[in-house]
Amino acid sequence: MGIDGPATPQGLNGPTAPQGHRQPPWIVATPSRVSEFTKCRRAYFNSSILSLGGEHTESPAIEVGLLVHSLLADSHAAGGCISREAIGNAADLHGEEIASMLEAHYDLCPAQSGATAHLLGAEMDLAWWDSSTRTHFRGRLDAVWDVDGTLTVRDYKTGRHPEEDHRSRFDVSAYAALAAVNFTGIRPIAVEFEYLASGALERVAFDEFSFQDALARIRGMAKEIAGTREFPGNPGIICESCDFRSVCPESAA
Question: For a designed S-S bond to 250, which of 17, 42, 43, 233 qualifies (C-beta 3.0 to 4.6 A apart)?
Answer without folding.
Answer: 233
